[in-house]
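Researcher: Sequence recovery benchmark, item below. Answer with residues only.
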């Protein structure tokens, strides 16, 4: 009976030690990657000044929907391909989704495709993952890297057509969750501020990032577009809705719990519990052998193969 218990302890101990080593050495590289089944919609709200029928600026409440859908077939172990969209509308008549171009409530609608490194979040400009007519893009787009640092990151700005610097500004807690705050400022002249209509563009965006997962918890945008010969065509203040922020906080906490379990708890428990179990099991086996030697030397020789 003692031998059975000893073997069970050794087996369980070895299993825990191996699990701890695997969780520490292998798991982080496997779980710290953007999932290939990503398919989400982010909800934003705010206010905008846009021209009315008389071309006079008129302030109106607005809603926006930003979608991110991964294309698993075009992705692989290291890179994920995305199809994205952003729709901005006047918040009127109970609108609850994007509308077509004939609807006067539509302010803008954009679509894009890009590929990103599944760990760093940085855009990958490689035709292997994109349609032949996909434009060149760079920088971060829909998330920060796992293990975000307190430093400046490049962030893609589609109006400028280049990445702009998002500088680290400090930390802020959102519902108790610590986030890193980054601020990206863009200014450009001679860019298309409306379809095929050039002008000047100014934007300031604050990103609230959960640093361990790189998730964007909140995003606050101020943007102004002035068309040449026309004047201001958009003066926008937009941010994630309160409900969206809470959803992001809850999701981040769940993901942090999973990362902590796999990367910290399992290695610690595996090594702290597994090694003693192996030693106790081996000790019991050794004691059992010594007892046999004392009681029956000939039997001990048979067991040792001598």
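Model:
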């Amino acid at each position: 009976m003692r031998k059975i218990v000893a073997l069970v302890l050794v087996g369980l101990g070895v299993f825990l030690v191996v699990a701890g080593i695997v969780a520490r050495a292998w798991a982080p590289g496997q779980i710290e990657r953007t999932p290939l089944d990503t398919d989400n919609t982010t909800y934003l709200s705010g206010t905008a000044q846009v021209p009315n029928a008389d071309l006079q600026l008129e302030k109106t409440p607005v809603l926006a929907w930003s979608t991110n859908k991964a294309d698993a077939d075009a992705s692989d172990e290291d890179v994920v391909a995305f199809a994205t969209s952003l729709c901005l509308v006047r918040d009127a008549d109970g609108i609850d989704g994007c509308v077509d171009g004939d609807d006067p409530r539509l302010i803008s609608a954009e679509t894009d495709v890009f590929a990103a490194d599944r760990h760093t979040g940085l855009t990958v400009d490689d035709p292997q993952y994109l349609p032949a007519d996909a434009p060149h893009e760079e920088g971060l787009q829909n998330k920060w890297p796992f293990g975000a640092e307190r430093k400046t990151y490049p962030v893609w700005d589609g109006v400028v057509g280049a990445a702009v610097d998002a500088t680290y500004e400090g930390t802020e807690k959102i519902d108790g969750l610590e986030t890193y705050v980054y601020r990206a400022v863009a200014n450009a002249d001679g860019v298309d501020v409306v379809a095929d209509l050039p002008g000047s563009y100014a934007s300031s965006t604050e990103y609230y990032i959960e640093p361990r997962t790189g998730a964007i918890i909140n995003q606050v945008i101020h943007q102004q577009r002035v068309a040449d010969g026309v004047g201001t065509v958009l003066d926008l203040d937009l941010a994630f809705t309160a409900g969206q922020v809470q959803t992001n906080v809850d999701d981040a906490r769940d993901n942090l719990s999973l990362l902590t379990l796999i990367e910290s708890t399992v290695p610690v428990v595996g090594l702290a519990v597994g090694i003693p179990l192996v030693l106790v099991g081996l000790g019991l086996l050794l004691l059992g052998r010594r007892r046999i030697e004392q009681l029956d030397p000939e039997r001990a020789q048979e067991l040792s193969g001598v």
